[in-house]
């Protein structure tokens, strides 16, 4: 923990002392990027959230507007439904994503429009059956 600045000591002098003490202890040795040139900041306009974006990229995170995130979730749900092992699971996946789609349709958040409507569960189940039949896995579904 850093000690408190003593009264009467100029802030700059106290900070400089903290930095020099840390250097002597080797706390700046082997930091990421040590000895490498700084990224070219002159070529890009200033972005006050540069550090947030860099941290998100480093952590493998992405942030989409809610409607775009739900579009992706809806597409993934449809793909998962088509790959589901039983009709019951198909119905569960599609029903759950439809709830989210309807919520967003009736209470839209800011951002681009959703561009999706709820899936027709019976239509997805019919397509699921056709795909299973075409793949040769059309045995009866014991779980219904």
- Number of E-state strands: 0
Q: How much strand?
A: under 5%
Radius of gyration: 28 Å
Distance between the termini: 62 Å
Q: Fraction of residues in helices?
A: 40-55%
Shape: elongated
In sequence order, what are the helices and strands, one letter per element? HHHHH
Helix- and strand-based class? mainly alpha
The largest sheet, given as strand count, sense and whether it forms a barrel, is: none
Mean pLDDT: 84
The helix count comes to 5
Poorly predicted regions are none
Molecular structure report:
- The relative contact order is 0.09.
- This protein has helices at residues 11-25, 50-59, 66-82, 87-106, 121-135.
- The chain is built from five helices and no strands.
- It has 144 residues and is mainly α.
- The model has no long low-confidence stretch (mean pLDDT 84).
- It is elongated and about 80 Å long.
- Helix content is 53%, strand content 0%.
């Amino acid at each position: 923990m850093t000690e408190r600045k003593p009264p009467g000591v100029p802030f700059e002098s106290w900070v400089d002392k903290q930095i020099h003490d840390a250097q002597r202890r080797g706390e700046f040795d082997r930091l990421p990027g040590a000895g490498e040139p700084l990224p070219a900041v002159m070529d890009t306009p200033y972005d006050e959230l540069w550090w947030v974006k860099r941290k998100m990229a480093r952590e493998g995170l992405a942030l989409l507007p809610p409607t775009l995130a739900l579009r992706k979730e809806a597409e993934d749900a449809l793909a998962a439904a088509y790959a589901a092992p039983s009709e019951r699971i198909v119905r569960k996946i599609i029903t759950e994503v439809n709830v989210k789609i309807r919520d967003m349709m009736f209470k839209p958040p800011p951002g681009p429009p959703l561009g999706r409507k709820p899936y027709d569960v019976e239509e997805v189940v019919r397509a699921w059956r056709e795909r299973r039949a075409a793949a040769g896995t059309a045995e009866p579904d014991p779980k219904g």
